[in-house]
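Before relying on records like the one below, remember that each one covers exactly one chain. Contacts with other chains, cofactors or solvent are not represented anywhere in the record.
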Amino acid sequence: MGKFFSDAVETALQYIYYQERQGKGWEGLELLQQASAAGDGDASCILARCLCGPQYVWQGHGFPEDDEKATLLYHKGVEEGSALAALICLRTGDMTPSLEKKMPFASLQEAFNVVLEKAKGGEPFCQFVIGNVYFWGDYIRIENKGPDAFPDMGAFRDYVVENIPKCEDWFIKAYKNGVYAAGDNLHHFYEAGEEGLIPPQPEKAKGLYRIGAEMGHPIHQFYWGNELNDAGQKQEALHWYQEAVAGGEMRALYQIGCLYEEGEAVPQDYAKAAQCYETTLNLDGYSIGSHNRLGAMYFNGKGVPQDYAKAFQLLSWAYNQDNRWGVFYLGKCCFYGLGTQQDYARARTYLEEMTWENKEANYMLGYIYARGLGVPADIKKGVALLQKAGDRADAKEELLRYRKTLFGKWVVR
């Protein structure tokens, strides 16, 4: 039997939360499944959390998401006597009055005390859960001290202000003991504070992810790399991105691809950039960027063979996710019939969604309006756009088709 939980649960916590870099997440998940089936309430609780998606467990494990099964497991954990499950159900909103009656604790306070003792004894996940109790305000229900329990709202506010900051110490303990998610919540606490109650402390948030990065957490190596990248420290950022990828945080490959494409911290290498983008096409949070950048590379023939059809496919996918980064390329494809059927109306739609100036885009729009292609002809508007295209030879040639009458009206020569 482990010090705080069963051997199965303690080993699973190591594999899934404290030492996720080992790549043994699925071994941990299997241990939890076996222990849960045998009636281990804590195993049911941690297993449920693993099925709730990347907000609750590192997505690098690749665990399936199943909210319905997770809810059943949380309930099972509570009924089997897991104090941890009781507090987490309270946090997730699953602690219904009927479930509260089924738990083998006299009250939520008793369940809290069980977890608190383990947290004081040094158990990292319990330290994290206790931190969440204060961070999210669950202590109010646990202590049964709503506004009605105080003489006025000012006294209740003082109670809240006194308790929220208690999360900081518990998150620090949990973070330094291996729970990267505690670092995430601590970072949020420092950055945002609590509106009207606790002021933000952004100076404490700065560099916080370095702790998790140096401890070997791939996700924080990725976050720390992003901070360094944003600060212009490209070489250091590259180091941590590479560490993150080596640990299984594949989202960092997108950032590495950007560095290779831009020639920052590494010699410019479009082929390597394209490989990075190709690998990250289906990664949450980076799939849109990967589709856009790889699409542009196919359009321009940089790092990959020029393929307008492939470019249009990739850029259209990102556009359909409500991202407008690639509208210039999409407009150009439709205007010239590159990789898709020539369609001036669609070209105009894409090009008019641009929020930046581009001489070629002005030429294409000017051509469309002046000639009335897929839109009622508007020579005046078309000429104005063609003039904005500057010294482009095609724009100058197109302008020769029009003249202004004595009455100031633009007409075809």
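Residues 7-198 form one domain.
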